[in-house]
Design a protein that fits this description.
- By secondary structure, the protein is mostly helical.
- It has 6 helices and no strands.
- The chain folds into 2 domains: 26-154; 164-196.
- It has helices spanning 3-7, 12-61, 64-70, 79-120, 124-163, 166-198.
- α2 packs antiparallel against α4.
- The relative contact order is 0.11.
């Protein structure tokens, strides 16, 4: 008599089907987590490209030609006013450049980390932990991206104010301000509509647990 065969519990047909169902469910959840991480990687890649363009614009704004045009002359009757404009121009341009470079560096690191997690993550817990860290860091990346974008606009408007008369540059300021206010309003309106019509209440949301 084979005692080893007797020692092994027999799963049976029902047990085998249950085991197969659990394996398929686990693989499906891992596949969903991989798709979510791939979505975040694509989003970071888009921000990376846009931040690269903004960094190039910001670097051009503090080049020698622009600074020469912005530098106030000592015999200018509006020397103090132009000095203040030059100060805010350089501050905004450098802030935009620094934030853009920060987004470039951080997004590249997050993309590499996400790809490593997709390649070597073998369990659902591994994928969920990596996705949670990625989601948390993406909030900082988005904030820095918005900072780079928001600080670039004042620098451009200050340059316009410094180089041409105020009554000519005022329409440009009003137009940019209107589009900026409309973009902020549209962002809040979109979030409100999504929360009201698309996203289910907290009691109806399905969360994946380890």
């Amino acid at each position: 008599m084979d005692h080893s065969a007797m020692a092994r519990p027999a799963l049976g047909l029902a047990g085998a089907e249950k085991r197969l169902y659990e394996l398929n469910m686990n693989q499906g959840e891992i596949s969903v987590q991989r798709q979510v991480m791939q979505f975040r990687v694509d989003y970071l890649s888009d921000l990376n490209t846009q931040s690269m363009l903004m960094a190039g614009v910001a670097a051009g704004m503090i080049s020698s030609i622009e600074l020469e045009a912005m530098r106030p002359e000592e015999d200018d009757p509006e020397f103090c006013f132009r000095t203040v404009l030059c100060f805010f121009y350089i501050l905004a341009a450098v802030t935009s450049l620094g934030a853009s470079i920060w987004v470039l560096y951080t997004s590249n690191n997050l993309i590499n980390s996400a790809l490593v997690a997709q390649l070597y993550g073998s369990t659902l817990a591994d994928m969920q932990n990596a996705e949670s860290v990625l989601e948390l860091r993406m909030l900082d990346v988005r904030k820095m991206y918005i900072l780079a974008l928001v600080t670039m606009l004042p620098a451009l408007l200050v340059m316009v104010l410094a180089l041409i008369p105020w009554y000519i540059s005022l329409p440009a300021v009003l137009v940019v301000g209107w589009f900026l206010a409309h973009a902020i309003h549209a962002d809040f309106a979109t979030a409100w509509h999504l929360e009201r019509y698309s996203i289910p209440p907290d009691s109806e949301r399905v969360t994946l647990k380890c």
